[in-house]
Amino acid sequence: MPNLFQHRSFGRSGGIASTTPGNRGVYSANLGAAVTGHSVIAALNAKSDPAGSVIASPCGGGAQGVCGPPGTNDASHAVANTFNATGALADHAFYLAVV
What we know:
Blueprint: E1 3-6, E2 9-11, E3 17-19, E4 26-30, E5 40-44, E6 53-58, E7 77-83, E8 94-98
């Protein structure tokens, strides 16, 4: 179920409540169900943002990963960070999938 996060405005296929912390390039998504044991995959939208990178991981502590924004460190949240070409946090459009 791919979802487009674009510059702090989420376009989504449904069923996902979205949250964006106040920092540039940091996005969290409430996926509405536990993502424990699933892969969180992110890819830049190269058409609108050709330079940079994105990383993503599930939240929830332990092996899942830890998310800092209040209310997001549980098994139903994922976090993504986007970076510009020099490696600094920056807003970029990207796709997010949980499989």
